[in-house]
Amino acid sequence: MPSFAQVTSSLLVLALAAQASGRKIQEKGGLRLRNLAETDDVAAAEWTYRATGVVGEEPYGPDDWYLGYPDCAGTKQTPINIAADVMGTATMQEQAIAFFPSACNSTELVFQSDFAVWQVDFSGCTTAPYLQYQGETYNLLQFHIHSPSEHVLGGAEYAAEIHLVHLKENTDDELLVVGIMFEVSEYGQNVELEPMWNVMDLNQDVAEEEFMAAAYSLLPSTPSFTTYSGSLTTPPCSEGVRWIVMNEPNYMSTMQLDNYRRAVALHEGSKVSETGATNRPIQDLNGRDVFYVTP
What we know:
- By secondary structure, this protein is of the alpha+beta class.
- It has helices at about 5-15, 65-70, 195-200, 255-265; strands at about 80, 90, 95-100, 105, 110-115, 120, 130-135, 135-145, 150-155, 160-170, 175-185, 210-215, 225-230, 240-245, 250, 290-295.
- It has four helices and 16 strands.
- Strands 2, 3, 5, 6, 7, 8, 10, 11, 13, 14, 15 and 16 form a twelve-stranded mixed sheet that branches.
């Protein structure tokens, strides 16, 4: 099975060239950024979000992912239940994070809608958004959605969770993921999501009409977050991922959520569960440090 470094370095080969000025992220050779769940192993085990009919046989369900991907049985897995009784507290000064937003033209983005995920790749964005955490710079690679949410906040599961996946500058194996909970709102559609959702609902790789996409506009207005060390939430479940989970949710409309769940469920080779879910079950904390960070 490929190592964490092999999986993430393939992302770098295909998509990343972070420059010192402008933090430009380039696309190489016309290739698009791959799903983080993909590997270079042509014999990679089949997996699914469904409970498997025969235990120990492919496609492996969540409880058996480790049979094809041993890292899925690790001690620092994601997602977790973020509960008050297991958290320490920290200030923004101690866990300093700063977001540097930038809007990308839709013609610079690549859209992926398939059997497991809706994903927007920022590899071709001239000046992609980035963040700084603990004095280090992380460039945005892509964002994708799970439904229901993967993390549980104080016992609450949300309608969806969007992951903004970042790679530490000048590395090929240090990921930071910002998790944003989404609840269904009666106040209408999320205007930032809507144009991107329209592209993926049509199963298009490239937008036919131009619009500006600002990934960090999906962040909630309240800056508090929870942080811990975890893993990828799909096989190969590689560990060493820094998680920043925003403590307040954003919103989307019922139609936006339904469009995603319907499209993924109907896609050939769909991996959704029996209930149409694309979220991994909660994993044991195993004594990890979890910090609730407030201004």
